[in-house]
TrEMBL record, chain A:
Keywords: Membrane, Transmembrane, Transmembrane helix, Transport. This is Phospholipid/cholesterol/gamma-HCH transport system permease protein. GO terms for molecular function: phospholipid transporter activity. It is a multi-pass membrane protein. GO terms for cellular component: ATP-binding cassette (ABC) transporter complex. Belongs to the MlaE permease family. The chain crosses the membrane at residues 52-72, 92-114, 148-173, 203-222, 234-260. PANTHER family: ABC TRANSPORTER PERMEASE PROTEIN-RELATED, PROTEIN TRIGALACTOSYLDIACYLGLYCEROL 1, CHLOROPLASTIC. It is found in: Membrane. The keyword Transport applies.
From TrEMBL, chain B:
The keyword Transferase does not apply. This is Phospholipid/cholesterol/gamma-HCH transport system substrate-binding protein. Keywords: Membrane, Transmembrane, Transmembrane helix. It comes from the Bacteria. It comes from Flavobacterium degerlachei. The lineage of its organism: Bacteria, Pseudomonadati, Bacteroidota, Flavobacteriia, Flavobacteriales. The chain crosses the membrane at residues 12-30.
TrEMBL record, chain C:
SUPFAM superfamilies: P-loop containing nucleoside triphosphate hydrolases. Keywords: ATP-binding, Nucleotide-binding, Transport. Residues 12-250 form the ABC transporter domain. The keyword ATP-binding applies. This is Phospholipid/cholesterol/gamma-HCH transport system ATP-binding protein. It comes from Flavobacterium degerlachei.
Length: 262, 325, 250
């Protein structure tokens, strides 16, 4: 029995390494193919629309609520110290640096990542990907490259929206509870912010977007046969992406800490 | 086709608004840090910048006018700080302006405050190095304190002698009246006391001004960024204030007494016949004594304050050096 | 080998094709010749390697060994561009129709025209080609529908139209009647015949449907255990006494 468990763990670890290796090859193929002509620009735009515009409402609602709740929750603590006037700076820094990017990325991992996983998975299962190949279109370029590009470029923009709306939500709370004017609030927000807050956070979001697209496509593109495979692809895309997002976040913060030295 | 066109327009809107948010944020942050627009360089140097960082705000009379651009070690106690200042404000800064380092609120970051100097002076030109304030101020202050302290010591000693003699018996009163030297002594003491009192009040007002600027926040003496220290100094000043009042009281009391003595017999009689008055003088003297002790204590407290420690050490070292000579 | 139609020259030749997935040997030396203008039916049980064979044929799967020669070109030695050019001459009807869910019928049909531009050049207006292909499957009215709005039979016909739009010389049918009711299946078979008459195509039809084989085949190959077990016309094979062959005809 214990031998079995050990064996299981080794097998689990092996399959994990295998997955990482395959994902790396997949990423390498993405970079190779993304420089090849022809560029599937129309499909890229279509994906941008699907991922950007169609996620906006979701991101906006979550961002708004996060800003609202975050402010409501931190207010009593700051009030205890008589530091309510620090609210805007505190909220802005935490939203811009961390909460905005990671929450938006997680929401998008749920929406976009699983969407890509399921879509490509079902396309694989119903031979649509083969059909594309036969039709002279490189399905990797048409399906994978466009989607990864779209997530990579759309996520930062979604994060901008998310940040802005979260700050607005936070402002509403401050305005109602503390009678802070719009001008004062945002003056304090931008007073607290530095490029060292905005830039690493923005660069980070590109990687978030890339990870969402990459894992979603990877899981979908190599989907196992059958409808169950599609479900597994969608599900594991979300799980794997979420985990990867936190790892990327950790690395990003770590690197920022070393190089930016704030 | 219709559908994709509207989709494209919406996507375009989405991207443009998103990027606008980003650009606006970048601009606003940059604007706060005076990264864009017309700016002019200005420099100053400190012997301690207290954790000042690149990008910290520069204020002129409390208005944000620029940011710190460069911090450079020049000597072991000389740090050159370069700032960029809004061109609009630049025309109002005169050459006698002084820079101090302060902190922005309780846990805020450091700021450089530029204070307009008194009187007329030429306007600064780009790259001009204005003087900084933090060292001069504390040194001056402490010099005054030390003089006051010496005076107070001398005066209380003298007074004690006199009062003791008065207390010793009636004979002394006669002695007091007849002995010119004694009268002179008393007179001298009085003048000491006066000077001392004046000096004390002067230094107190100095300190008060300092504290006031501390309260104003926009004119913080660099080293005094800690509120705890500020409070302590405020306490010290309060004590000094009390001491000064007491000294003043004592001086006026003694003054009155001396005048009475000088006036002639009546006064003498009064003095010798009224034990209450004697007691009064006695208690006055004790007060002065106490006050002087307290002043000493205050100065001692100041000595132990880490801010001034360095200064006192320097004084001691100088004393040692003089003694060696 | 071209015994049945000596006047036609071979258009596809497969020699000793082998393919295995791990320990599962799917194809163990499969040989086959398709002549011009011929309808070749390949029958076999599920998992006998029919689909794998046909995917090797069009370059979707790489065989472990063996040669495939299509119209004089050896698949597997071709560059991506020439393979794509060759693919314009080969239509492929997928088992599940494989229509692109996210596109309308028109976009589905236009899709092969996007990259296969050699044949028709770059088209400004694809409407005539799209409509012609749709008319030949009798579904011109469905041009603006989405695949989800179509029935199974319609999907199959649209998929057929999509294969036809490039006017290929060879059409590969992967289980064209599977999953359809007998009447619709018959309609599809009639359509396949009429297309062969109209465009003079050669075809490989993979199926396990005996009716389908009877209607459409000029020649048949029975695929058992990864090799071509028996070969001949429908009549010849149905009269065979071999129990393995008889099993296909019940």
């Amino acid at each position: 029995m214990p031998m079995n468990a050990v064996f299981n763990i080794i097998e689990l670890f092996k399959s994990f390494l295998l997955e990482i290796g395959e994902l790396s090859f997949f990423a390498a193929r993405f970079f190779r193919e993304s420089f090849k002509r022809p560029v599937e620009f129309k499909e890229f735009l279509r994906q941008c629309y699907n991922m950007g515009n169609r996620s906006l409402l979701l991101v906006a609602v979550t961002g708004f609520i996060i800003g609202l709740v975050f402010t409501l929750q931190s207010r009593p603590t700051l009030q205890e110290f008589g530091a309510v006037s620090w609210m805007p700076s505190m909220v802005s820094i935490s939203i811009i640096r961390e909460i905005g990017p990671i929450i938006t990325a997680l929401i998008c991992a749920g929406r976009i990542g699983s969407g890509i996983g399921a879509e490509l998975g079902s396309m694989r299962v119903t031979e649509q990907i083969d059909a594309m190949e036969v039709s002279g279109t490189n399905p990797f370029k048409y399906l994978v490259v466009t989607r990864i590009m779209a997530t990579t470029f759309m996520l930062p923009i979604l994060v901008f929206f998310g940040d802005a709306i979260a700050l607005f939500g936070s402002y509403l709370v401050e305005n109602i509870k503390g009678n802070v004017s719009f001008l004062l609030y945002f003056n304090q927000v931008f007073d607290a912010l530095e490029f060292g807050d905005l830039m690493p956070a923005t660069i980070k979001t590109f990687f978030f977007g890339f990870a969402i697209g990459l894992v979603g496509c990877f899981k979908g593109y190599y989907c196992k046969k059958g409808t169950a495979g599609v479900g597994v692809a969608a599900n594991s895309a979300v799980v794997f992406t979420s985990m990867l997002l936190f790892i990327i976040d950790f690395i990003a913060v770590f690197v920022t800490d070393i190089f930016y030295d704030l | 086709m219709e559908k994709t066109t509207t989709q494209k327009i919406r996507l375009g809107l989405f991207v443009i608004i998103g990027l606008l948010i980003f650009v606006l944020a970048t601009y606003l942050i940059g604007d706060k840090q005076k990264m864009f627009g017309n700016t002019v360089q200005l420099a100053t140097s400190f012997n301690n910048v207290n954790g000042l960082q690149l990008g910290n705000n520069v204020r002129y009379s409390g208005v944000n006018v620029g940011t710190v651009r460069n911090i450079e070690m020049i000597g072991d106690t000389n740090i050159r700080v370069e700032m960029i200042i809004d061109k609009e404000i630049f025309k109002h800064i005169k050459k006698n302006a002084v820079a101090t380092i302060g902190s922005d609120g309780l846990v805020g970051s450091m700021v450089i405050n530029i204070l307009p100097g008194k009187g007329m002076a030429d306007l600064v030109e780009p790259g001009y190095e204005i003087s900084s304030l933090n060292r001069i101020r504390t040194d001056d202050l402490l010099n005054t304190f030390s003089k006051t302290n010496k005076n107070a010591e001398q005066l209380t000693e003298n007074l004690l002698k006199i009062t003791n003699e008065i207390n010793d018996g009636e004979g002394t009163v006669g002695l007091l009246v007849n002995d010119i030297a004694m009268a002179k002594d008393l007179k001298l003491t009085m003048s000491y006391l006066k000077v001392s009192s004046q000096k004390t009040s002067e230094s107190i007002s100095n300190l008060n001004r300092l504290i006031a600027t501390l309260n104003n926040k926009d004119n913080v003496v660099g080293i005094l960024k800690d509120t705890a220290v500020a409070n302590r100094i405020r306490n010290i000043v309060g004590n000094l204030d009390n001491t000064s009042i007491e000294i003043n009281k004592a001086v006026s009391n003694v003054n009155k007494t001396v005048l009475n003595i000088k006036d002639g017999k009546g006064a003498l009689n009064y003095l010798s016949n009224d034990p209450g008055l004697v007691r009064k003088i006695d208690s006055t003297m004790t007060n002065v004594n106490e006050a002087s002790i307290r002043l000493n204590e205050d100065l001692e407290a100041l000595k132990h304050n880490f801010l001034f420690r360095g200064y006192f050490r320097k004084l001691e070292r100088e004393k040692l050096r003089e003694q060696k000579k | 080998m071209s015994t049945t139609m000596p006047n036609k020259k071979p258009i596809i030749e497969i020699k000793d094709l082998r393919k295995s997935y791990g320990d599962n040997h799917v194809l163990n030396g499969f040989n086959m010749v398709l002549n011009e203008g011929e309808n070749l039916v390949i029958m076999g049980k599920s998992g006998s390697g029919k689909s794998v064979m046909i995917k090797c044929l069009i370059g979707l799967e790489r065989p472990d060994s063996g040669t495939i020669i299509v119209m004089g070109e050896t698949i597997g030695e071709l560059s991506r561009t020439t393979l794509d050019e060759l693919r314009t001459e080969i239509g492929f009807l997928f088992q599940g129709s494989a229509l692109y869910d996210s596109m309308t019928v028109r976009e589905n049909l236009e899709f092969p025209l996007r990259r296969h531009t050699k044949k028709f050049g770059i088209l400004k207006d694809t409407t005539p080609l799209v409509m012609e292909a749709l008319e030949s499957v009798g579904l011109a009215h469905a041009v603006n529908l989405m695949p989800a709005e179509l029935s199974g039979g319609m999907k199959r016909r649209i998929a057929l139209a999509r294969t036809l739009i490039l006017q290929p010389k060879i059409i590969l049918y992967d289980e064209p009647t599977t999953g359809l009711d007998p009447i619709t299946a018959k309609e599809i078979l009639i359509l396949m015949k009429s297309i062969q008459d109209k465009y003079n195509t050669s075809a490989i039809i993979i199926t396990h449907d005996v009716d389908c084989a009877r209607v459409i085949s000029n020649r048949m190959i029975l695929l058992v255990d990864g090799i071509n077990y028996a070969e001949g016309t429908f009549e010849e094979l149905s009269k065979s006494t071999d129990p393995q062959v008889q099993a296909f005809f019940k």
